[in-house]
Specification:
7 helices; 5-stranded mixed β-sheet; elongated; 7-stranded mixed β-sheet; alpha/beta
């Protein structure tokens, strides 16, 4: 019997006061940065992890007020590490200032890098939003156990949104810190060549199979039924692939033409995100040989096989 499709429902009810430390779990506090917007929702969630000794996950944007809020919440405790889920600037830009203020080392999965080489005429539309200069003091590997203060984390490589993205399981619990890989308020942006749709789909499968029931994302509120939501996201992406192939078979030859079919009505602020998402799907389908993609100076030309 075929598996029933899970409905994909986004939760946009999350509200929080920026700069305020909120207790989520024992040893886990959330402080939301004041950088809300079309791609960040209510702002980036920074997490203070640990009890007597702590680590900060995703210090967030370069904002002095947010730095003060983090230092205030840390208080007199020792900050032993600054950990990044990935190196987009809404997560990492404050890290150097927090390091300078505390002496804590930076830990993440290697310097920012593209998921694949740029192809001729291809533009990386998120290049300016990526932190190319920041370097880790410690590179975290997939499956590695790390000490986040006096709390244990298990690293899980989840590339897709970008190449060096990681999620972190909280040891002794069924909670997963998902960064931008899985968020309850919207689907994740996958911008090629910074990200990869093939990697993203594989990373969704990886999260679904992992022993974590609940998710804490970097934007928005907790996701109570994590694997079920991740399965719905995966099904949504696979259905989108089929929708694109069908549109190409019916005559769509450009990303703009796909936009008219897939996203006929969109607010102006999110159109660029939709464009990048469709480009990632088309790139994936072209690599798989399900459609034909020709990249040129004036854009992509798409045709059926």
């Amino acid at each position: 019997m075929a598996e029933a499709l899970s409905p994909l429902s986004f939760d946009t009810r999350f509200r929080t006061e920026t700069g305020v430390a909120v207790d989520i779990l024992p040893g886990v506090q959330r402080i939301t940065a004041p950088n809300g917007g079309p791609f960040t929702f209510t702002g980036t969630n920074s997490f203070i992890l640990g009890h007597n000794r702590v680590a900060v996950l995703d210090p967030g944007p370069n904002d002095s007020g947010h730095l003060e809020a983090l230092l205030r919440a840390i208080g007199g405790r020792k900050l032993e590490a600054i950990i990044l889920t990935h190196t987009h600037i809404d997560h990492s830009a404050l890290a150097p200032r927090l390091k300078a203020a505390t002496g804590a080392p930076l830990w993440f999965a290697g310097r920012h890098r593209l998921s694949r080489k740029r192809r001729p005429f291809e533009i990386n539309l998120v290049a300016r939003g990526s932190d190319w200069s920041i370097r880790p003091d410690r590179v975290i590997a997939d499956g590695e156990r790390i000490e986040a203060g006096d709390l244990g984390l298990i690293g899980m490589a989840t590339p897709g949104h970008c190449a060096n993205h990681m999620a972190f399981g909280i040891e002794g619990t069924d909670w997963l810190l998902t960064g931008d890989h899985i968020m309850g308020w919207n689907s994740t942006l996958v911008p090629v060549p910074d990200g990869s749709m093939a990697d993203y789909l594989h990373s969704l499968e990886k999260a679904i199979a992992a022993p974590y029931a609940h998710y804490l994302p970097a934007h928005g509120g907790p996701i109570a039924e994590g694997p079920a939501f991740a399965r719905a996201l995966l099904q949504h992406r696979l259905l989108r692939n089929r929708q694109i192939v069908d549109a190409v078979n019916k005559g769509a030859t450009t990303i703009g033409a796909l936009m008219k079919v897939v996203y006929p009505v969109l607010p102006p602020g999110v159109r660029i995100g939709a464009w990048m998402t469709l480009t990632a799907h088309a790139d994936y389908l072209g690599e798989r040989g399900e459609i034909r993609v020709k990249r040129g100076l004036f854009g992509w030309r798409i045709s059926h096989i």
